[in-house]
Specification:
By secondary structure, this protein is mostly helical. It contains six helices and no strands.
């Protein structure tokens, strides 16, 4: 790979991370408004997931700005910790919603935002996977999986919101959360085992 090719790939990596940051910063505001209006724990929780994604993107921007195996190891540890936090959050939130039988109101804003977010995060995750592979950068590839989980969580929240709105199935969202707990725990374990 030439220096010019590498520089172009690094620019693409930065652009993908800045796009992710921007989307999630805007999403925090949108989700706060939607969660408050619908009294939705799922939407509030998805806002917290956006904070994790912001943190993971900041870690990758920091890692791409420098070089060295030690820097990559620290970045991977931070991303692994983000997966662990996400798994813990989803487990607690899903269990709490199911145990209390909490039923949110309908949220057209939440449905619209999570639908678009699922598409945007999926596209960003694919771009990060390709760019990370081309750069042979495990940090960018791993954070791409965080972005993929964010897209999957958006889809799960969307399904839950739609099923609640159309059929009154309030439990659909926390049930989908348990599936994502498994995925996040697996990713955290994979990162940890790769560091040893």
């Amino acid at each position: 790979m030439t220096t010019t090719d590498r520089a172009a790939l690094l620019r693409r990596g930065f652009a993908l991370e800045y796009a992710t940051l921007g989307w999630n910063v805007i999403g925090l505001t949108v989700l706060a408004v939607a969660a408050w209006a619908a009294h939705s724990v799922a939407l509030a929780g998805f806002g917290l997931d956006s904070l994790i994604e912001i943190g993971a993107s900041a870690v990758v921007i920091w890692e791409l700005s420098g070089t060295g195996e030690d820097r990559q190891r620290r970045a991977l540890k931070l991303i692994g910790a983000a997966f662990a936090v996400l798994a813990g959050y989803l487990l607690v939130q899903s269990t709490w919603v199911l145990a209390t039988g909490f039923r949110p109101h309908h949220s057209p804003l939440g449905i619209g935002w999570t639908a678009v977010t699922a598409l945007v995060m999926s596209a960003l995750a694919a771009g990060k996977a390709r760019t990370g592979a081309a750069l042979d950068n495990p940090v960018l590839r791993t954070e791409g999986r965080v972005t993929l989980v964010d897209g999957l969580l958006a889809a799960a929240v969307l399904v839950g919101l739609v099923l609640n709105s159309l059929a009154g199935l309030w439990w659909a969202d926390p049930a989908a959360g348990y599936v994502l707990v498994h995925y996040a725990v697996r990713e955290a374990k994979e990162i940890r085992s790769g560091l040893h």
